């Protein structure tokens, strides 16, 4: 079983049993699962679809569980038409067609976590990453961020004040006024 699927299944089991940490001999450290979002049932259904797909060999190592899915198949992340248009414009401004939109989550920000977005090349995609194909571009999400981004909606506004990408995350308990930080 792939690393992502194993991690998520173990995390879901720990949440269901009330356990807050587990010792993994493979990684040699305790892994906290107390910050998992409350959308485990939707995540579990999506992992059934993700775990059966593999990225093309040119994009990953052979052992990774990542997959290439269409947006409809994945059901992971909704991107509004205005955000799709803006991401496509950014991609078109680059010198190469071999570029992907990477979304993620990192520790930090006003509420505990902050969103990350970047354009990356094929060499920056690992076998554990999930690739979701949208109209005009592909979105890459790492396994840890997948848990926090599941069910999120990304929108874009070109207003002079308060414009830019907007994140609507059903897993977030707390959000910051800046709109790019959240807590679970």
Describe the protein.
The chain has one domain: HesB-like domain (Hypothetical Protein Aq_1857, Chain: A). 27% of the residues lie in helices and 32% in strands. It has five helices and twelve strands. The protein starts with a helix and ends with a strand. It comes from Lotharella globosa. InterPro entries: ATAP (IPR016092), ATAP_core_dom (IPR000361), FeS_cluster_insertion_CS (IPR017870), HesB-like_dom_sf (IPR035903), IscA_plant_cyanobact (IPR031108).
User: Unreliable segments (pLDDT under 50, ≥5 consecutive)?
Assistant: 1-40, 49-65
| SSE series | HEEHEHEHEEEEHEEEE
How far the N terminus sits from the C terminus, by CA atoms, comes to 28 Å
Overall 3D form: globular
Strand-residue fraction? 25-35%
Describe the main β-sheet briefly: 7 strands, mixed
Give a quick summary of the entry:
With 184 residues, this protein is an alpha/beta fold.
Key traits:
single chain, 184 residues, alpha/beta, Hypothetical Protein Aq_1857, Chain: A, 7-stranded mixed sheet, 3-stranded mixed sheet, 12 strands, disordered N terminus, FeS_cluster_insertion_CS, 4Fe-4S
